[in-house]
Amino acid sequence: MHQVSDHYQVTIVKYGTRATAKSDVYLNYQLYHEDDAPIDMDYFFWIVRNEERTIVVDTGFSKHGGEIRGRTLLAEVPELFEHFGVHPSDAPDVVLTHAHYDHAGNLNYFPLSRVFMAEEEFSFWSGRHAHRAMFHHSVEDEELAYIDQVSREGRLTLIRKEFQIAPGVQILVVGGHTPGQCVVKVDTSEGVVLLASDAIHYYEEYERDMLFMSVADLVAMYEGFDQIREMESAGSIAHLVSGHDPDTLRRFTPAIGKFADLAATIGVFSAASGTGP
Ligand SMILES: [Zn+2]
Hints:
Layout: E1 9-21, H1 22-25, E2 38-49, E3 54-57, H2 63-67, E4 72-73, H3 77-83, E5 93-95, H4 101-104, E6 115-118, H5 119-125, H6 133-136, H7 141-152, E7 156-159, E8 162-166, E9 169-173, E10 182-188, E11 191-197, H8 203-207, H9 218-233, E12 239-242, E13 253-254, E14 263-266
Parallel strand pairs: 3-5, 5-6, 6-7, 11-12
Antiparallel strand pairs: 1-2, 1-4, 1-14, 2-3, 8-9, 9-10, 10-11, 13-14
This protein binds zinc ion.
């Protein structure tokens, strides 16, 4: 039996977007013998919160990281964090699901926070393959250097396989998309939420077993799908939150207020009061 404090509200925040095509997001799209079609890619970060603690999952792309890749920034990421009640001075824990520019930009917005990421991810980006074109185009050297700085400051926790960051919040290392890609399981009043991040960019990718175009390990990516399917069929997850699917927000409870069209929530903030912040 969980205590009230073990349940969290998950807020999904969309901060960026771009228009692209299926042939540009799926690896070897011609394998599926389908006509090409336009598809949007949305960019999110996630906030996990209850009365006792706040955990930030990923920090979005930086202005620079988005600009040089032609991405549309829908709202300033720090302003969004502030709006949704996340203050750097409170030093919320930060989980980096992986080190790509669209997940680890703005990490320096949290100079006091503890940061959690997979050991494989950290060592890969300081290793001998990090500079290779297939990998390097998805990262910013400045942002990798900042992760090193976090490590030198003693704020970085490297995790292997599974790690419970707090009661009701578990990080699983699945790999595939990047060597240390993580997913995050969160207990909410609406059941367990899996923040799949880039283990599942699009719901179709997962449902139809189609791989995303950027992948470090094909087998691990398929195995990540299988692992998530097993969790779903065992009933250990109730809600799946994709990393980039434009349909994601529509699947959950719309936010209210200034950034209503950029956010959705799962679960109540406090089971005691039953209302949001
Ligand atoms: Zn991504």
